[in-house]
Structures are given as structure tokens and as C-alpha cells.
Amino acid sequence: MQQYPLRIAGKKMRLADMNDLGKDGVSCTVCHQILAKGLGTEASFTANFQIGAGNLLFGPHKDPFAMPMLHHTGFEPREAKHILDSALCGSCHTVITQPPGSTPEKPIRFVEQAPFLEWIASSYPRTGKTCQSCHMPQLQDADGRPAAQYIAHMPPGRPFPPTRARMPFGVHEFIGGNAIIPEMMARDNPQQEDLLRTTAKRATAQLERALKLGVSTRQENEFLFVDVEITNLTGHKLPTGFPSRRLWIRLELTGPQGARLFESGGWDPASGELRAGETPQPHYRLIEKSSQVQIFESHALDMQGKITHSLLNSASHGKDNRILPLGFDAQRLPAAGLVTAGIEPVGVEIGDTFRPGSSRTVYRIPLPALTKGCRIQVEALYQTIKPTDRPSSFPLQQDLARPVVVARVERVL
Ligand code: HEC
Ligand code: HEC
Ligand code: HEC
Predict the structure, then answer these.
(1) 372 CA distance to ligand 3 middle (Å)
(2) Closest residue by Cα to residue 304 from 319, 286, 316, 287
(3) Which ligand is nearest to the CA of 383?
(4) pTM (2 decimals)?
(5) pLDDT tens-digit map of 350-367
(6) Helices of type H across 262-365
């Protein structure tokens, strides 16, 4: 918000000069003033949307009763369908950076966050499922039917006489998978504690809607094989967005008396770190040892090809095995007039076990002497900030450093 007038004047903003407007984040009048012009094209990415000089606020409903709002705020509400388009979200939710060393002659583009590009590559655009469908759920009545809502009221509380309740009405939840930041804020803001905690709970519920966990077991040649399949139910990669997110599989085999016989993906409750250590793990088709952990994540490399945790120095991906959305095909990007580089998986080939829409991991564990009564427990765990991405100057309380158990399946042999 602070940057916009400067941008019109052709000036740049320094982070050190940030004022309250800059700190406020994304307000109503940012999203609702964005023009349709250029949306969905390269030119609009990294928040390069355009705002006109007309003081128009766009919304999805027909014939808004404009006079009171125009009179009191100077903004005119106007119907415009681009507000319902994923490309509106895609302007800000496609973050492409250039590391130091990138030059106009040899530009280096690093695709830091790309839910919109991942969505374009998926089958969702053709089925009409937009960002808004999942992140701005329609208001419903107690029976789960679409409900109507008045958009504006006069100061004493009655609706303006000529207006009608509108439908469908998109609830402005904008929930992703980040439950820990709203929870941290709740602890520091007693006055808004309840609201912030509601947001944190919604994020956990959103994560539970993000995937399906399937587990099957078979015994063959002295080995127990466990197939773990994770199906991505989101409209983009899982996890998506900010690069510090990760999802991993914990698999535990216990004996009839509960003794642990094998574990992959165990973690330390005090730090949220993996017991196998926080060293980089490749993508696995087959896991045979406790030291091997299937982690769905991206790692960035700097210009020298070394792993970096600095967003600004990131130049390429060293690993990106985040689970692909349904129908994923990177070739849909050039077909939509966009550059392909940057969203293909890295460190894993698309094939029979890593398919558009799901990923399957096979575990091969020596059969215990007595299998009857043994128990297999599999969990999908989501962590908002992986420990290696957390500066020591940013301490987290123990419970916030822990992963969220998104799904759990148990089988008795
Ligand atoms: C991140 C972008 C974004 C922000 C921020 C935002 N809106 Fe919206 N708004 C939308 C989109 C997209 C729709 C259309 C959603 C739909 O109908 O499914 C919408 C719809 C609306 C509507 C029409 C009712 C409906 O949902 O159909 C009103 C009124 C509205 N917004 C008011 C506000 C107000 C007031 C704020 C600030 C408190 C705000 N918006 C902040 C994106 C945004
Ligand atoms: C089919 C439902 C669905 C659709 C369609 C969808 N999302 Fe999501 N989105 C989710 C779920 C579930 C999560 C939580 C899991 C995760 O973080 O991947 C999520 C997470 C996110 C996050 C949070 C990432 C973070 O930083 O933690 C962002 C941002 C996001 N989505 C943006 C978008 C945008 C932009 C679009 C449209 C281009 C979109 N989503 C389409 C379901 C959906
Ligand atoms: C003007 C830029 C802008 C637009 C347009 C925009 N967003 Fe965002 N969005 C942001 C920013 C900034 C954040 C906060 C990111 C953070 O905290 O790291 C955010 C956060 C989110 C999150 C929460 C991510 C999390 O950490 O859990 C979701 C979900 C989301 N946006 C969805 C949408 C959808 C859907 C639309 C389109 C209707 C949209 N956004 C349009 C800038 C925007």
C-alpha cells in the first residue's frame, strides 16, 4: 500500500522506510482496486498488478447501489468478473526473484512461490475450481445450503432500502496451512486472542483437507512391504507457497507388546527436528533404513550451487519433490503463454510412483520373528517452518516448533 504511489511516480521504496501503511499488509482497497489489465500474464507477477486512477472498487455482484459508498468514501463499487478469476490471486501469489549476480544480459529467474503457476499446470482450471473456490468458501446456512448476505448496512444497522441480500457470498478466510503464526499472535494480543485462535484452528482444518493418506501392507520373502500413498487434494503443489514448509511421512512398526521395531521420520518433541538429523534427504522410491525419511519439500541453491536458506540468494532448486496437483503437466504453461522454467519437479522423475496428483513410497522392513499383533502406524506430518530455515534469532515455543499431524493410519498385522 505504501509502495503504490511511489510506483506511479517511478520511485522505489526502501524497506527501512516502511511506515504503518506498509506494515498493514494487504487491505480491502488493494485487492478490490486491481484492474483486469495484464492479469494472468508474466507482466502481472510478483505483485505487478495495476491500479487505475478512477477510485473504482470491483466486486462480483450486479448493479451495486453506489451512491452511499461514493458519498462517504470517494470509492465507487462496480461489478467486474475478474475479481472471481484465479489470475487476480496469481499476481501476488507468483513470486519470482533475481539473485545478486543476475544481470539484464544474463537474467536468472528464481521461482520462489508459485501456487498460481502450479494451478495453471493442473487440471483445475478446466474443471472451474479456482483459488476462490477453496480459499473463500461460500457462505452457507445451517443445512449447508448457499446463504445470502447483505453487503452493507446503514449506521443504525438496517440495510439500505434498495439493496438485496447477495448470493453467493465469498467468506474472506484466505486460509492456508500456517497455523503457528496466528497462534503466536494470539499469545501476544489478548484482545484479539479468540479471533486469531479461530484462524489457527481453520488452518489446521485446511491442512486436513489437503491430502488423503493410503496405506497397504504385504509380506514377501522375509520382508514386510508397506506402500504409503499420499494424494494431493489441493489446487497446487503440496506443500505450496512459502519455501520453508515441509511435509513428511513417519512410519513406525511396533511389536505385539508395543516395543518399537522400526521407525522412519521420528522427530524430537523438544525441537521439532528429525531424529535422523536435519541433513538433506533425497526423494526415495524405497525406504529401508531409519536414517531415510521421505520429505516433500523444496531446497534452494545459490549461484555457486550450494544449499542456501536465504530467499534473496536463491538461484535454482536443488530438490523439489512437493506432491504435484491432479493433472500436472508443465507444458500447459507455454500453452498459456507463460515461461516453463521453474515448476518442474527436481530430484525426482514423474513416473509410476511420483504421479500428477499423488506420490507413493515403499518401505521394506525385515519381518519380525512374530508378526501377529505387530502394528504399523503411518502419519503425514506438516511443519510450517523447517528448523534449518529458522534463524536462531527467531525462537519458537516448543509446541509451535512441532509438526501438525495431518493424517494418521494404523494397521494391525
Ligand atoms: C486478497 C484479496 C481480497 C481482500 C484483501 C479483500 N477482498 Fe473482498 N473480495 C475478494 C474476492 C476475490 C471477492 C469475490 C469472492 C466471491 O464472491 O467468491 C471479494 C468479494 C467481496 C465482497 C462481495 C461479497 C462476496 O463475497 O460476494 C465484498 C463486500 C468485499 N469483498 C469486501 C471486502 C472488504 C470490506 C475487505 C477488507 C476488510 C475485503 N473485501 C478484502 C478479494 C479480496
Ligand atoms: C482444491 C482446493 C484448492 C485450490 C483450488 C487452491 N488451493 Fe491453495 N491451498 C489449499 C489447501 C488445502 C492448502 C493447505 C495446504 C498447503 O499449504 O499446501 C492451501 C494452501 C495455500 C497457500 C498457503 C501456502 C503457505 O504459504 O503455507 C496459499 C498461498 C495458497 N494455497 C494459494 C492458492 C492460490 C493462489 C490458488 C489459485 C491459483 C489456490 N491456492 C488454489 C487448497 C486449494
Ligand atoms: C495484493 C497482493 C495479494 C493478492 C491480490 C492476494 N494475496 Fe493472498 N496473500 C498476500 C500476502 C502478502 C499474504 C501473506 C503472506 C505471508 O504472510 O507470508 C497472503 C496470504 C494468503 C494466504 C495464507 C497463506 C498462509 O500462510 O497460510 C492464502 C491462502 C491466500 N493469501 C490466498 C489468496 C487468494 C485465494 C487470493 C485471490 C482471491 C489472494 N490470496 C490474493 C498477498 C495477496
Answers:
(1) 50
(2) 316
(3) 2
(4) 0.96
(5) 999 999 999 999 999 999
(6) 332-335
